[in-house]
Known about the structure:
mainly alpha
Amino acid sequence: MILKLIAIVLALAILLMGVIAVENKKLVVAVIAAGVVSLFASVFYLLLAAPDVAMTEAAIGSGLSTIIFFYVLNKIKKDRKDHA
């Protein structure tokens, strides 16, 4: 019973963060929300007894992808300052 409740809360949090990631105008907030979606998805996979998928999602989805997005955003901001 408690696992179902946790799964429902995680699913609602994933949906909320997904909407925030898509609808937000600030790119930093959108990237953080997308990272949180991946982090919550990895916890959800852990609840579904798939620890290998959970570790991969946590490492690649919420870790590496978020770092790459922030790196690209930083590069874009630097290029805009150099060309302005």
